[in-house]
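User: Could you walk me through two proteins back to back? I'd like the raw sequence and the structure tokens for each, with a short line separating them so I can tell where one ends and the next begins.

Assistant: Of course. Protein one, sequence then structure:
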Amino acid sequence: MKTVETLNEGLKREYRVTITAKDIDARVDDEVKSIAPTVRMPGFRPGKVPPNLIRKMHGAALSADALNKAIDAGVRDLMTKEKLRPALQPAVSLDENYESGKDAEVTVALEVLPDIAAPSIEGLKLERLTVPADDKAVMAKIEEFAAQMKRFEDAPKSKKAATGDQLIIDFAGSVDGTPFDGGTGEDMAVEIGSGQLIPGFEDQLVGAKVGDEKTVKVTFPADYPVADLKGANAEFAVTVKEVKVPAEAKIDDEFAKSLGLESLDKLKELMKDQVEQELNGLTRTYMKRKLLDQLAASHDFDVPPTMVEAEFAQIWQQLEQEVAREDDVEAAKAELESDREDYRAIAVRRVRLGLLLSEIGQAHGVQVSNQEMQRLIAQAAQQYRPEDRQRFVEYVQQDALAAAQLRAPLYEDKVVDFLFEKAEISDRETTREELEAAIEADDDGGHVHGPGCGHDHDHDAKPAKKAAAKKPAAKKADVKEEAAEAAPAKKAPTKKADAKPAKAAEDKPAAKTAAPAKAAEDKPAAKKAPAKKAAAKK
């Protein structure tokens, strides 16, 4: 095999690899010997077919297979000989004029990872902001939980429905007088003012009484998931069967028992654990952001353009999804476009920090154990339908890149924990409000967030230089949301599709995802609630 370097520019490399016809032919011979025992041909005993006849029968397929194997081996030898560390999968192309029986000319183009000087981890200083999980915080959490479990009780039949009341209705929808699929339902519970239904529907139920029959006129949203109903004007014949009012929620032993607990004290104990977990998570988020800021300020090196493009594409795609949900889509698109270079700078920073953390981890022996990896795979498999989970597990086990993508978030967290151990940390007690404000604040007016700074991607990717009214709002996404599926579908078409906030790889290396991309048929079927309105932005 002959290798000639044809490009060496920055992090870009290109090579011309010549694989001799003799090498390819030798591999064909090996293939012939490998399959000979299984080849059957009239007039010959099994395994006794002459090699020249096997070549005649399977020559084209054997040559193609041998060529592919020769190219794979050639690329591996090139990486070893030149000590190359590819940033992404190399682009390998065979000369279009190649003819069987002749030498093969192969072009290998790639970007290499930069040589990063041994990262300094000395002198790291961090402040750990802590918030005590006191009785006030615990009771606030219980009250929040109780509000989510709102109960309703029957109201007098003469009661006119008001905001906050719940109605039980039957409905039949039509567009231009024609009923549509899924447009009919019975005994659907609607809380007025909840924002669950498409705009205007709930408002027209205010003042309704038991037995009332109303015609509700609405316009389906432009992004409604059913093509025939996007932007359509519809009418719903609604019959009000019941009107209910919110029941008073008493937080006492009886309330705790309704949850299957022994007493209110037991509920407080459980809620305190949850509050402590949330507060510890906020503390870690703040520390991690400050850690990454220090690393970014003290390290600067070129990063592979293809990795930056991959990260930028991920950021941009999520922002475009947010823009599509804005009231004035065109204005939002124009404003987003004006910040394109700011987002690209963010992508550069995220890639650089991802590479830097990886280098620190390797230099100090940080590893993800086999047991931890198996647990990651099992958790990721839960995102798929039961019948697809084993196929996903096998896919990750067989695909090194997929496994690396799955391992990356945990690996980075372990590197961060290692750096926490090395840093000089001072403690300061504060309030939850102050801690959350500190996380959201852009201290220098131009902070560019890095991978894993503790914010969801929408906030990560937002330039700090201006706060645009029409720009997609930042969201505080629950860490559990990443694995959650959309709510189960309901019958009523009057609700707009549930749309989970676009969630970035929080605390993850740039340009890598939590799970490898899968073919559409491998993914679990998305569960949609075509009747629900987009999830409210927090």
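----
Protein two, same layout:
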Amino acid sequence: MNKNLSRRAFVTSASALGLVGASGLALPYYSRANTRPGFTHGVQSGDVDTVSGMVWTRVDRPSRVMFEVSATESFSNAVKLPPLDATPESDFAVKRLLTDLASDQDIFYRMTAVDLSDVNAVSEPIVGRFKTAPASKRNIRFTWSGDTVGQGWGIDDKGMYTYATMARHTPDFFLHSGDTIYADGPILGEVELKDGTKWINKVLTDEKSKVAETLAEYRGQWKYNMLDEHCRAMNAVCPTFFQWDDHEVVNNWSGSKDLSKDDRYTEKSVALLTSRAARAFHEMTPIRFTPAEPGRVYRKIAYGPLLDVFFLDLRSYRGPNGDAVETEMTPQSRIIGEEQLKWLKRELANSKATWKVIASDMPLGIIVWNDAKNKKGAEAVANGQPGAASGRELEVADLLRYIKNAGIDNTVWLTADVHYTAAHYYNPEKAAFQDFNPFWEFVSGPLHAGTFGPGDLDMTFGPELKYVKAPTAEQGQNLPPSAGLQFFGLVDIDGASEQMTVRLMDRDDNELYKVTLDPVHSA
């Protein structure tokens, strides 16, 4: 008898069995001596809306990948799609957009690989699932965080455990807020800790032994993360909506980044490194393709009548990092970029969703220095001068003024980047620039990286600190994941009341902070 597999049961089985058994998911392996193709890094899904979703996988050799899609785990009456070829040009990765799906429906997808050199060599199947967005009002739950495998903290004996904690909440999707890899963060076998113990990186690869410079090395950063069992288990059952920041390329990259004195790099061109990094990012994630601008990261995901998510890219269109004190908008002072800002205003104004989540890869009011040691230069929006908006703050001021004047309600900003968790309420009565409506910004991370902070707040936009959890002075900076200060956010939107509840959580699933926001319904 065919029976649908519940979301929670599917999550549990995938985690407990390490992606083998009931879920049909294969563990990574690399043996070319094997007579059949193998799937090396599990499956991923992403950018899911009411009628479509992206899916991804990777094989170990040139193969023709067959796709089947079904509304049941048994794959009865499955739809077979035309195959795709996995070739060396894409590092044997394939992804596709599944279309014409029913809304609010569990979707199971199955891939099978046929060796292009031997059509009789057929792989074991690999299976994943996701749920499409609702066309009517229902409860929505999602998580967000950022900063994966940073500062040399790789896969230890516990693994990237925050993924397992998030998966237990059975979110509809996971929003990865950037620093999805650390291409500039090599992994060593072990790290001496302050208490005399050692952090042991149980998983080591050649690509993670140095900073990424070649396309293969950038691809290897992604493949390393997917060697973690918790990451793969969550990928198999929960879509990830990706955006990027700086560590996908190199720390604090902009037009002014200079690698001439960085002996780790033989390739000194940041533009060339960015090109390779961007290609790897799009090859190794289930992000949608934008024909108008191939390689674009900013986009909107419409997740039913209660939620639209607007993904920003504060990295690709910025002017060079500098003091950021310009008093007029210039190409040098921009961080959003003219075209992206026009797009965001237009899409926000056209949105009919109750909640408009602006997923930003960097915070608005936390001062992030380009030169942290000397506290100089702006890496994010804030420039450390709490007066009138200047530098990169000019674009944000323009956006906030537009949101107010256009009568756009219920905007919430979610971000990561700073490696601690916090809740900020932006209050125009406390701000130097006051022409905006109040809003919330929530910060969460790292997902699996060093913990830092807290950072200082710039009062140009009046951020009130409602909660923060970061290392104490006694603990110091760059705490390993084993210290427990790894964070994610959990968002629930109630289908009946339309209220949004935001929780800040740690990797042991402790609720640190909670606030419920009431929606504004303008006439």
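The helical segments are 7-16, 161-167, 215-225, 229-237, 270-284, 338-350, 393-405.

Let me know if you want the two compared in more detail.
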